[in-house]
TrEMBL record:
InterPro entries from the UniProt entry: Pra-immunoreactive (IPR051791), RDD (IPR010432), UCP021697 (IPR016795)
Name of the protein: RDD family protein
Residue intervals passing through the bilayer: 68-90
GO CC annotation terms, alphabetical: plasma membrane
Amino acid sequence: MGSWLEGGPSGEGDHGAGLGLAPSGPGSAAPLGRRALALVLDWTLSLLLASAFFSSSEGPFLERADPMVTLAVFAVESLLLVGTLGFTVGHRVLGLRVRRAGATPDGPLPDDGRAPGLGRAAVRTVLLCLVIPAVVWDSDGRGLHDRSAGTAIVRR
């Protein structure tokens, strides 16, 4: 029985088959649990940075950060790291990465190991920060933000 970090009862699923992703192991679609935990880690890091460097009030440390400043820190982290490296801090810790995904007339895009680039990362980040696109999935298990950006989160 697989855990919620691994996905499904067997730890595998058929998500990503339409994108040409591996059915299991490295390069397969990342399970929801790992993606959610990576998001929590990235948001916590953003909150810590916003509280430490951009707070303008007194009070408990984590309550000092303005929510919009925390969101801006999160957006900058996501844009720069995904665009240039292909992963955020949370993705890296949990063994995930963001890759280009989609289809061409000749079939699925090959995984060349490169980061998605700043353009795809910008689309993905803006939609991720709006939250709703991130909780709407397609049949391959991608959030609307990844589908719109032509990306997918996979296991490293």
